[in-house]
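debug: dumping io for the single-chain case to check the tokenizer round-trip. Nothing else runs in this session.
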Amino acid sequence: MLDLAALLTEDPERTVGEVMETEVPGIAPATSTSEVASLFEDRDLLSAAVVDADGRLLGRITVDDVVDVIRDEAEHSS
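debug: decoded output
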């Protein structure tokens, strides 16, 4: 995970690898949409990796995707 504020405020001599957090788990493909929305809210994410059980990257989810899901759920519950 790479915090944008940290990237912009850290010493410019530091590498991205030194600034980023490497122990943040990805999102499993079977994760429910409501759980994904909660993860985005809790972690203040803009995007997140979707990874399989072996840690291989399958894709990514962006905050735009999460907003679309929340909007759709709100429309269906009205």
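debug: round-trip ok. The first strand starts at residue 47 and ends at 51.
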